Amino acid sequence: MRKPFVAGNWKMNKTAEEATALVKEMLPELQSVAAVERVLCPPFTSLMIVSALLTGTGLGTGAQNMHWEAQGAFTGEVSPRMVKEFCQYVILGHSERRTYFAETDALINKKIKAALEVALTPIFCIGETLEENQASRTAEVVIRQVKEGLAGLTQEQAKGIVIAYEPVWAIGTGLAASGTGANAVVKDYIRSTLEEMFGRQVADAVRVLYGGSVTAANASEFFEQPEIDGALVGGASLKPAEFVNIVKAAVR
Ligand code: 13P
Q1: What ligand 1 atom has the least distance to the C-alpha of 176?
Q2: What topology does CATH give the domain 5-249?
Q3: pLDDT tens, 3-57?
Q4: What are the boundaries of each domain within the chain?
């Protein structure tokens, strides 16, 4: 049985002061939902304060990005060990990083390996653009992203990662995928590729989330799908009542 998993990706929102207020508002209710693995991913500048607030609560902290080198002359970047000081998780390969910061599959692969080296759990994002979707290229794109992103991992490493299927056309648009449509992509392209690469046991063990315009109103449509284990939530993770209700809906 895969434990349900819900993470909030705050993206570039909230100062440290605002982050503190947001965590304090949501925390009591979120703490009660221990059946779900719950993770908050604030911007770098709030990781320290958020991780302090979450210590001992059962919730985890995640970064939204990371450099792959251990240290050095990389102005403006943050290393795996720096992230690891405050986090258990790191979002890698988000479509906004692929689009605005030219992150490639090969670069994301380096970051995933670097995260695993310091025992951070990658939340590895994949998904096709609207254009790719309309050209019936979803299978090709998603399979390539899985293969190149996870190339060279051992079975043991692969088993521990979390994958988020986030169709780019569904992110921040209010146009979520359908539950059955997302489930089919996870089953036919993502888990089947994991099986091909790492075997059946790994394919069955990896948590795969859906992301893209998840709200309290549509979350159950995804959580009731057999292949979907939770959600990576953007906009709705900034609204305390919404996020709490999404987490509650993930209880199996
Ligand atoms: P929205 O939930 O705002 O569509 O964002 C999804 C996302 O990109 C999470 O990583």
Answers
A1: 4
A2: TIM Barrel (3.20.20)
A3: 999 999 999 999 999 999 999 999 999 999 999 999 999 999 999 999 999 999 9
A4: 5-249
